[in-house]
User: Which sequence fits this backbone?
């Protein structure tokens, strides 16, 4: 298994987007618009692969003032609890440090709170709704 930065528009990017759809949108009866997918050109997209198969993906966006945001973290359902999400997050945090960032924030679905909590992310503020489900802002200050 390895984690790498995905080139926008590549075959690997298409497979990462497909996994994102299958994990985060199809179960809600939703999909990404072509415009939403095109926004990846301005984000860092990571893929965790096992051979040719994309088994995990996430995005990182620059929020300014040293803050970066993790978005759309998704692992293949058949591969949950195998450390793939932890590996993606650690790779993402290393990238944030390399860019001179000091902190990561994200909007966590309620079912992902324990995952992010186990990685050192703290809950901040009240519950709010996105894509029809409760989310919490979570934050982590990165050690240098
Ligand atoms: C949330 C998600 C990305 C976690 O990825 P994962 O690869 O399964 O997580 P990991 O195996 O790296 O888990 C790391 C640690 O997080 C915690 N954790 C992960 N999933 C958990 C769960 N369902 N319940 C409780 N703790 C959990 C555990 O402490 C785990 O360590 P352990 O297995 O040694 O006990 C994955 O479950 C997923 O894609 N879920 C659906 C999409 C989603 O909700 N994405 C987040 C959107 S905000």
Assistant:
């Amino acid at each position: 298994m390895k984690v790498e930065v995905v080139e926008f528009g590549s075959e690997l990017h298409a497979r990462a987007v497909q996994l994102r759809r299958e994990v985060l949108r199809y179960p809600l009866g939703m999909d990404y618009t072509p415009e939403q997918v095109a926004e990846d050109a301005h984000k860092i997209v990571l893929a965790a692969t096992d051979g040719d198969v994309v088994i995990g993906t996430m995005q990182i966006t620059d929020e300014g003032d040293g803050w970066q945001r993790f978005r759309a973290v998704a692992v293949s359902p058949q591969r949950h609890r195998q450390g793939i999400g932890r590996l993606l997050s650690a790779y993402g945090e290393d990238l944030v440090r390399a860019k001179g960032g000091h902190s990561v924030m994200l909007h966590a679905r309620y079912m992902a709170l324990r995952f992010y909590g186990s990685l050192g992310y703290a809950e901040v503020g009240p519950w709010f709704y996105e894509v029809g489900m409760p989310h919490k802002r979570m934050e982590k200050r990165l050690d240098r």
Remarks:
- The radius of gyration is 14 Å.
- The chain has a mean pLDDT of 97.
- The CA atoms of residues 17 and 69 lie 18 Å apart.
